[in-house]
Amino acid sequence: MSIDRDIDRAVASGERNKRTIELVRNWCAHAKVKKFGGVGLVEQQTGLPIGHHSMECDYAPAGGMAAWDFADAALDFYDRNCVGCAKRQVVRLPNLSNLVEERSRAQACAAAERERQSKAAQEAASRRRRARESLRAGQAATVLTLLDDFERLDLEHSEDARVRIVETAKLAPEVFTPAIVNHVFDLLDAREHWFTEAGLQVLQYLSVDKRRLMSSAMRCLSDHDATDTAASLVQENLDHIDPAMVPEAVPALALLARSPRSSLPPDTQSFRPAPLLAVFGRWPQQVCAGIAKLLDQRHPYWVMTGARSLSVIAEIDPSIPLRFVQSLSAKLARAHLLIDEDESSRGPDDVCADLQEALSLALLADPVSTDETLMGYYEGASREGEARLIGVYKRLFAQARRDDKIAEQAGYATVLRRLIWAATTSPNDEVLREVLHAFYGEPDALADVARSQLDLLLGSAALMDDRVAEAGTDARIQRHNNMFEALERSNRRHILYQLSESFTRWAAAAAGDDDRATSQYVEFLMKAGADHEELSSTLVGQTHFLMHNPRGLNAVLPVLYSALVGASNLMRASAAKTLGKLDHRRVSDLPNLVFEAFIPLLRDPYVVVHQSAVRALERFELPDAFDSVAASALSNLIVAYKDEKASHTFLMDCIALFVQRYVDDEAKRKGVVEVLVALIHGIEPDVAVRKLRHISRKVAHARGYAELVLRIVRDDKAMAYLEEDVMKLLYDVPAAALLTHRTEVEAAALNRIERRFVVSSFLEVLTRVGAWPEAQRLAQASWEQVPDTIQMRQVKWSARLQLDCSQLRGGYSRWPHE
Amino acid sequence: MTSPRWGRRGEKPPASLKRIDGKMRKDAILSEVFYARIEAVEALLRVGQPKSPTAEELSDLGTELDRLSLRYGRASTASAYGALADLFRIVSTLVEWRSGVLAASPEADRFLRSAKERYRLWLKEYHDNEPAQNIVSASRKLDDVSSLDDVESLCRSIASTPLAIGVFAEDQTYIPRAHTPAATNEAPTELTVAFLKFQIDAKPASELHHLSPNEVHDLEIEVRVSRWPDVGKQLKLSPITIEPSSSHDFPAFTFDRPAGHAPYILVDRGRALLKVAQGLQARPFEFKYAAEFLPSGVEQPVAVVGHRTLLIEGLDLNANPVTGYHAVDRKIVEIRDNLRRAGLMPSSDLKDSLQILTALSNMAGRAVQDAEFAGIWSEAQFQTTFERSCAAGRRLA
Asked: Does any CB of chain B come closer than 8 Å to the CB of residue A44?
């Protein structure tokens, strides 16, 4: 549902932008609209201009900006460039003037409102002045001076005046006569915001009626005015507080304690939890009532504030979130119904993170009952609600993994069991994704918990394997109505597989360094056997976690070796991958028999096996004795794959690996590199570049390399997103080869004349080898290509500089001194 | 054609030239370098003219070019500019000589001698440097300088030398380096474990050692440890193998922290046992000893070197002959080992090949020892006998 809401929002924005674009085009024939960034799915499907757009004009001296609401960018551009422009060519109405007029009307309304407020403020100021005048009668000079400071503070809101008043209260409290004290209270009661801070500061130094003072302070908190000072007063005078006022003050105290994250980075708020904790210590029921009111709100900001205050209080009373489990769960499960969106783009999704955090604390405080409550809501929740509720468990895991050590294991064991239950039973993809995120990476601080539940993890991996098999069967026998359905099925199968892999990974990572757990894992792997080929291969694929030390290596090697030489393709591939994941020290401890078993995998007829073997070989080095057979196997693969267009990425991997590991001087003499370069000629340029950049130094001197690079430079796809890498290849071409191909190089550069970076790079390369005439022609063409407009003036200057450089460096006779 | 002049040496070029409307890369430094170069060229061309530059000015220009050369990422461009900067400093000495001669200063020739010696050193550095070849050629006259005219001519020659255009500076990706007090201390010796000796039954272990199954053998080991980790308590040497533990009992050696100073030589002895016999088809047992300091969290060896692999053949050809002919059996084992080492044959094919090889070898042994094919045999007779013999064999049949 949040996706639907986002789509609606994007469509509305696109429609607004479409209207603005029309207005801009009607405004002036010179005006252009430029899209900033890529095209999203909604934009693609609707054809609406969604995203950031900017306005441009060749005659604009001041530039502009791109904005999500194009009207903002257009009006900004108008103010900077269009007002008084003599070049404007009007097209038709309606145009940008409509937006300008709308803005002017809005500005006029705002001005009128400001005027009304100003008048009201003046009347209030007159009343205050009269009140102060009445206080002056018959008073001593010190009192009159104080009243002067009041006057200045009122008129100028001067900081100096505020300091003087407060310091007077500190040093000479007797100057504050009862009438003046009363006046201070009156100002506070009248909610004069300019005075609140000073008023509270003054009263705290005077011996005044504490109940009245606390009443004012609590009212300030309710109004979110001078909250820092009011909170300090409250913290120090807890016994004088009227408990009935506490619930209203809780929002301000909660904001001080931990306000919601800012939606704009960087979020550098500092928190002050002490006042809230102090009030909670004295008036817990009232504080809870205040929090309950916050949680009952519909506005995201207040719901977040309430949830976050629970996290603060839980630090001194871990059981406090338990009181709110019902309301938090209800809010979380039905967030789309119970929480509004706000202007600052905080929506239900943002609020849910805080609700989940509060619930996760409750889960830690009482795992069993909280789990029961959450599951009660889970039963009747929507698909999104289910995922949010499971997100509570995920959040707890994510937090625990960031910690060095966890205190309470029982709660986490409950969480782990619940997550596994959800993974093995839920048909809801969103829920499965949440569980997957919970088991992301390795267990870290949760390793002990995972080890204690090793059987459950391994058993669940087996169950997930069955679910993967079911999903696979369905996909094969059912016809899909459309592409999205097929995509969804494929995604679901992938999630299920990833879950199985995650459970296995956690089991293996937890079992590492523990001999008993390692044996348990290996036994499970041996029992899984050929009947569960996919599960077995997943289990083998995680055994590198067990081989941290010689004991683990010894425990795993028999099964790993069996997998390497076994009949199952998946197992062979998985075993090969595992070898690639071993750390250097463990690889050096491997008996040669393992490498002997690995080598035939490079010649394996099954694609999954030999490709996995090559990818593994990229990550470890074989003992020298195996170099020749490995090189031979790799060269066989290169020959076999040279015409397999769909697998050219793999072919390029093989070539790169071969060059990096096995091309020596002897091979160079025999022309091996020339053959490989010729083969790379047959590979799509954008595919070739990715690996060629790593081996270009070793192959650059081979015949055909210059032509290869020129071919890549001419390829639009490669240059579209690998431009810098391609240019680096060009720098590696030897000078002699570049001079031989100087004409083609010039032509390739001229073909990309609009790309400043490319042209500059070509200039560097051409002048490095002394191809000055070509460099001059290129610089000339580049300079001529840049339009002579205000907008492009600086680019034109830059091109001119390069032109001058290339001409002046061409020879002594061209220097201006001659 | 005249060039626009936006800045002087030492001044930063306008920021707009480095980042032009988002279309120019921020590391473009051509404008900065170009004007330093122009200024340098102009100074060279003024040598011998009314406003001739001083030696100090030329030296400063060389320093500026040097600074800029360091900003180039491309080795070729940086090297050309670096060569020119060094040459500037040499030329500044020549200019000093020129001033000395004109002022009739005593011993002015020492500047000329110094310039020529420095030039020789400069040539040593750059004569093979491809990007600097233009400058090397242009400066050849320096060795023959003997008059003031020669200096001016040399300066013009250097000034007119084209230099590659370098637009972009080196990518200044900053990788923070940890500055801890420990990092400044001298690094300790690398922690290595070297296997010095393996002896089985008091004999050095051979490349492929034969052991009788179900018999206990002495295994003696000697290792050298470069140093001991600070908190390491024990060093454990464990045999790593692909065999299940039920098939063998090879010892793990554990050493406590030794007394004295590193390096340490540690010797120990244990008992090795192969619990199962091995067939011809089977690969030899391989035990590779790994070294690990305990507890497992302590520093571990960066390298374990030396002979630490035991290849144990559990096939006893005397007690369990393959063909019944000892020499033939040894040849079969040799062929088997070669095929495995080459890795050219899948294990299933190798197994089949050995079956056939065993049958054929047995027949060959019989043919030689018992003269089974004495006399002249027709091909048909031989084939028939051969087929019968194969059919009678348990494996091939």
From this structure: no
d(CA A394, CA B278): 53
| CA distance linking residue A375 with residue A326, whole number of Å | 11
Whether residues A768 and B24 touch (CB distance < 8 A) is answered with no
Least confident span in A22-31, A303-312, B44-53: B44-53
- Which positions ≥6 away from B189 have C-beta within 8 Å? B226, B227, B262
Cα separation, A257 vs B4, whole angstroms? 61
Distance CA B192, CA B291 (A): 9
CB atoms within 10 A of CB A220: 26
Q: Closest Cα of chain B to A721: distance in Å?
A: 16
Measured N-to-C along each axis, helices A409-425 and A383-402 cross at an angle, to the nearest 10 degrees, of 140
Tell me if chain B has a CB within 8 Å of the CB of A502: no
pTM: 0.77
| Phi and psi angles of residue A577, each rounded to the nearest 5 degrees, phi first | -60, -40
**Is the Cβ of A551 closer than 8 Å to some Cβ of chain B?**
yes
The tokens for A689 are: 């570049």
Secondary structure in 3-state letters for chain B: CCCCCCCCCCCCCCHHHCCCCCCCCCCECHHHHHHHHHHHHHHHHHCCCCCCCCHHHHHHHHHHHHHHHHHECCHHHHHHHHHHHHHHHHHHHHHHHHHHHHCCCCCCHHHHHHHHHHHHHHHHHHCCCHHHHHHHHHCHHHHHCCCHHHHHHHHHHHHCCCCCCCCEECCCCCCCCCCCHHHHCCCCCCCEEEEEEEEECCEECCCCEECCCCCEEEEEEEEEECCCCCCCCEEEEEEECCCCHHHEECCCEEEECCCCCCCEEEEEEEEEEECCCCCCCCCCEEEEEEEEEECCCCCCCCEEEECCEEEEECCCCCCCCCCCCHHHHHHHHHHHHHHHHHCCCCHHHHHHHHHHHHHHHHHHHHHHHCCCCCCCCCHHHHHHHHHHHHHHCCCCC
Asked whether the beta carbons of A559 and A525 are under 8 A apart, the reply is yes
* A-chain residue closest to B34, CA distance: A805
With beta carbons under 8 A apart, name residues in chain A contacting B160: 811-812, 815
A251: Cβ contacts below 8 Å, ≥ 6 apart: A224, A290, A294, A302, A305
Helix (H, G, I), strand (E, B) or coil at A32: strand
Q: Which residues in chain B have their CB less than 8 angstroms from residue A775's CB?
A: 165
Alpha-carbon distances, residue B260 vs B195, B228, B254, B257, B265 (angstroms) = 20, 11, 18, 10, 11
Cβ separation A585–B301 shorter than 8 A:
yes
pLDDT digits (tens, 9 = 90+) for A421-453: 999 999 999 999 999 999 999 998 899 999 999
Contacts of A314 (CB under 8 A, 6+ apart): A320, A321, A358, A361, A365
- Rounded to 5°, angle at Cα A25 from A20 and A31: 110
Quick one: pLDDT band at residue B308, thresholds 50, 70, 90? Answer: confident
Point out the least confidently predicted range of A419-428, A593-602, B321-330.
Answer: B321-330
The candidate with the shortest Cα–Cα distance to A634, out of A611, A665, A668, is A611
Burial of B306 (0-12, 13-18, 19+ CB in 10 A): middle
A810 contact B CB<8A: yes
- In DSSP notation, A516-556 reads HHHHHHHHHHHHHTGGGHHHHHHHHHTGGGGTTSHHHHHHH
Cα distances from A278 to residues A211, A237, A272, A275, A290, in angstroms, run: 18, 10, 11, 5, 15
Classify the C-alpha dihedral A493-A498-A499-A500 as positive or negative: positive
* Kind and range of the H or E run holding A33: strand A32-36
With 60 as the cut, is the pLDDT of residue B79 above it?
Answer: yes
